[in-house]
Amino acid sequence: MKAGRSVLLLLLLPLGIVVLVALMVNYGALSSVREQFDMSSAAQDEDLVVIEEAASFSRDMGLIQRQMAVALDGAKSGQLDELQLYRMHTRIVEELAALGERVRRLAESELVIDANHNSARQLIHSFGEYRRFIVMTTDVIAVDPRVAADFLDQAQIEHREFSIFSSRIVSLLAERARDRNAAQVARFDDAFRGVLLTGLIILIGLFVTASLLGRRAGSHMVDIADALSTLARSAEAKIPLPRIEAMYEGGRGEFARIAGTLLNFRNAIERQRSAEEQAFQLAFYDPLTRLPNRRLLSERMRSVLRACEQHLGHAGVIVLDLDDFKRVNDAYGHGVGDRLLVEVAARLESVVGEGNTLAHLGGDEFAILLGPIGADAGSAVGEVEACAERVLAAFAGAFQIDGESLYATASLGASLFGTPLANLDDPLRHAENAMYQAKSEGRGNLRFFDPVIQARLEERIALESELRLAIERDQLELFYQVQVDENDNLRGVEALLRWRHPVRGLVPPAAFIGLAEESGLILPIGHWVLETACAQLLAWAGDARTAQLSIAVNVSARQFRQDDFVQQVGGVLERTGAPPRRLKLELTESTVLEDIESTIVKMKALRAFGVRFSMDDFGTGYSSLQYLKRLPLDQLKIDQAFVRDIIDDADDAVIVQAIIAMSHALGLEVIAEGVETREQQQLLGQQGCRFFQGYLFGKPVPLDELAQRLR
Fold first, then answer.
1. Do the Cβ atoms of 553 and 529 come closer than 8 Å?
2. How far apart are the C-alpha atoms of 388 and 431, rounded to whole Å?
3. How far is the C-alpha of 614 from the C-alpha of 29, rounded, in Å?
4. What does the alpha-carbon distance between residue 80 and residue 74 come to, in Å, rounded to a whole number?
5. Which residue, among 698, 623, 695, has the nearest Cα to 655 in the 3D structure?
6. Distance of alpha carbon 559 from its chain centroid, rounded?
7. Which residues does 578 contact at the CB level (< 8 Å), separation at least 6?
8. What is the DSSP track for 21-67?
9. Which of 615, 622, 552 shows the shortest CA–CA distance to 582?
10. Predicted local distance difference test score (pLDDT) of residue 1
11. How far is CA 691 from CA 347, 432, 479, 485, 694, in A?
């Protein structure tokens, strides 16, 4: 509002000044014309007085002429006596004297002299002669009327001369009045032309001034309008406004403030667009590789699907995952791992091809969207395979990261899709499943989606979901399988996990333990098993028949690798009050030997509580005596794979004999699992095995069945 008033004042101020000057000039011109008009009117009035005076002279002289004619007629007829004639003579002389004085004054006036000096003298002369002859006529009219008539005729002649000169003066005055009027008109015309010229000059000046001011203000307004249009239409992150910046830096007043406001508005728009761009990048692009993320890939898949609908074509998606990427992070650190991902993204961009989409799904997983790529499935498969070959070739050379040459391979999974498509997420999910199949079958290759494998994976996903509910709804249960000595005396049990599903029934461990390991559910499950077993040990400790029984609990590798595993076991023992000597933890060879030093530290810490250890499935791995002698083990368990064929297979018999001999050399107990016949028990006993577990002595049973046996 303030700016508008200032702009209006800027435009009206010069206009007001110019109009004021124009009014003053016109007023001066009109005043001059008025003064000339007044002077001319006064002169004209004076001329009219003179003309009127001249006309009255002729009239008065005519009256005298008529009086003289009357007197002459009366003298001739005798009707007038001398006294009457004398009286007429006296009156006429007086009238002539007064008239003469008037003629003299008129003839001697500046007005008549200016009109015609000679005519004024002739006027006086003619009147003098006229008066002389009239006087002479009145003098002799009573004595000699005839002579008087001659004098009167001569007076008449002088009267004509006087009238002629008087008319000439009147004519000259009239002519001078006409000249004066013409001059006055000319002056008025000059004044009018001056006023017009002044007005024109003022208008031109006003136009030039307004044009200059308007051009200056208009130029600023045009710049402001252009800036507003640029702000409204420009989609760039940076909006250049050089003229507005110059107006702000070089100007002052309202336009400079308007320019400053526009620049502030521009800066606000740029900040908003920068924030929107950052939000868009965060929402649709991976911040590390600058590639589209899973969300943007889904949008691109939707667009490709529409194109497939129009052209009745197919599209394809490839999911690739780096092999052993964790090894790079562990060996070189996550910083090097991130730079490797960036280099991988750059190589993939160079081989993906124009029109296709490369996305980073997270971690070391990428996806390539191809499409539309063919009207029939055969050509579409060819396009996908060609792209996969380029991708695999891109991993042939080493990646240079911080001077290190790193080699990487990738496993690729692919799927085709077209219309109709029930679920937009299916193609990507199928490709991921195929990628996992490629990893399991041999890395660095390509696999297409297999519906059979997909059904198996979907079943696995459903099972995982149900397993989570099983933990919450207390569907898990411990079964116990007895362990006996050489005299079939009960020495302990192994706790074996079972899942009592409300629909599936009793689910065996082989169906869900591997899934629990992969999903991480093994951690809460393992903790529950440990709590339940220790609670049972406490219950048995109060009964003389069961006080000496031990419970062997299987510990998964993922559970054992937890940093606080020792504290977890100690906490369970403390909460339950179970006797630690009756708790036996069974570890596999792979678990023990993966990080031998950390394993020894944890085992010794647990031995300090009184917990015992058994190495499960011994003989299936690659244990060495050097490691075994360092481990605080109490027992080795011979895997049932060797026990099953010990009667008929000499090699298995030799292996079992070697395991037993090595265990005795290390001072360890030996227990054989999977014993199903007396012949197997006898042979194992002959070779020095003193403890057994298997169907010969009992299957895994629930706690209530075990309680009946114990009774």
1. yes
2. 13
3. 130
4. 5
5. 623
6. 50
7. 533, 534, 535, 537, 538, 541, 572
8. HHHHHHHHHHHHHHHHHHHHHHHHHHHHHHHHHHHHHHHHHHHHHHH
9. 552
10. 44
11. 60, 47, 20, 4, 11
In order of 33, 257, 265, 481, the CA distances from 2 in angstroms are: 46, 11, 18, 95
> Which whole-number Å values give the CA distances from 504 to 68, 221, 453, 463, 508, in the listed order?
172, 81, 21, 10, 10
How far, in whole angstroms, is CA 101 from its chain's centroid?
Answer: 110
Q: How far apart are CA 115 and CA 103, in angstroms?
A: 15
379-to-302, 321, 413, 537, 633 alpha-carbon distances in Å: 21, 25, 18, 66, 61
Q: Which helix (H) or strand (E) holds 334?
A: helix 334-352
CA count, 13 A, side-chain hemisphere, 115: 32
Distance between CA atoms of residues 376 and 225, nearest Å: 56
Weakly modelled stretches of the chain, pLDDT under 50 = 1-4, 7
CB 215 within 8 Å of CB 10: no
Look up residue 337 and give its amino acid.
G
Contact 474, 422 (CB under 8 A): no
What SS3 class is residue 222? helix
Q: Is the dihedral of CA 49, 52, 54, 59 positive or negative?
A: negative
- DSSP type of residue 701: B
- The amino acid sitting at 393 is A
Single-letter amino acid code for the residue at 253: G
**603 vs 495, 582, 608, 614, 620, CA distance in Å?**
20, 16, 9, 11, 21
Q: What is the pLDDT of residues 604-616, one digit of tens each?
A: 999 999 999 999 8
For CA atoms 177, 178, 182, 183, give the dihedral sign. Answer: negative
Q: Is the Cβ–Cβ distance between 289 and 345 less than 8 Å?
A: yes
What is the rounded distance in angstroms from the CA atom of residue 686 to the CA atom of residue 629? 25
Query: Residues 517, 521, 525, CA angle at the centre, nearest 5°?
Result: 100
- Contact status, residue 427 vs residue 305, Cβ threshold 8 Å: no
**Kind plus residue range of the DSSP H or E element containing 492:** strand 490-501
Instruction: Give the helix/strand (H/E) hosting 361.
Output: strand 357-362
Q: Which of 478, 452, 645 is nearest to 552 (CA)?
A: 478
Cα–Cα distance for residue pair 670/677, rounded to 1 Å:
18
Show the tokens assigned to 491.
């020495």
- Distance, CA of 682 to CA of 687 (rounded, Å): 9
| Coil, strand or helix at 507 | strand
* DSSP assignments along 539-599, one per residue: HHHTSTTTTT-EEEEE--HHHHTSTTHHHHHHHHHHHH---GGGEEEEEEHHHHHHTHHHH
99 in Cβ contact with 57 (< 8 Å): yes
Task: Quote the Cα angle for 315-321-326, to 5°.
Answer: 165
Coil, helix or strand for 697? Answer: coil
User: Residue 350 pairs with which residues in a beta bridge?
Assistant: none
- CA triple 693-699-703, angle to 5 deg: 105
Please give the Cα distance from 241 to 656 (Å, whole number).
Answer: 88
Measured between alpha carbons, how far is 621 from 642 in angstroms, rounded to an integer? Answer: 13
Strand (E) positions, 386-489? 399-401, 404-406, 410-417, 446-448, 476-485
Alpha-carbon distance values, 178 to 107, 170, 174, 182, 376 (Å) = 21, 12, 6, 6, 114
- AA letter at 291: L
Q: Residue 667: left (phi > 0), alpha (psi -120 to 50), or beta? A: left
Across 601-655, the runs of DSSP E, i.e. the strands, are 612-618, 635-638
Tokens of 535: 């609670």
Among 232, 89, 100, smallest CA distance to 152 is for: 89
Interatomic CA distance for residues 328 and 337, integer angstroms: 6
Q: Using DSSP, state whether 698 is helix, strand or coil.
A: coil
Rounded to whole angstroms, the Cα distance separating 677 from 696 reads 6
DSSP H helical segments within 143-288, as ranges?
A: 145-233, 242-250, 254-284
Return the pLDDT at 9: 55
Q: In 3D, which of 657, 647, 701 has the Cα closest to residue 678?
A: 647
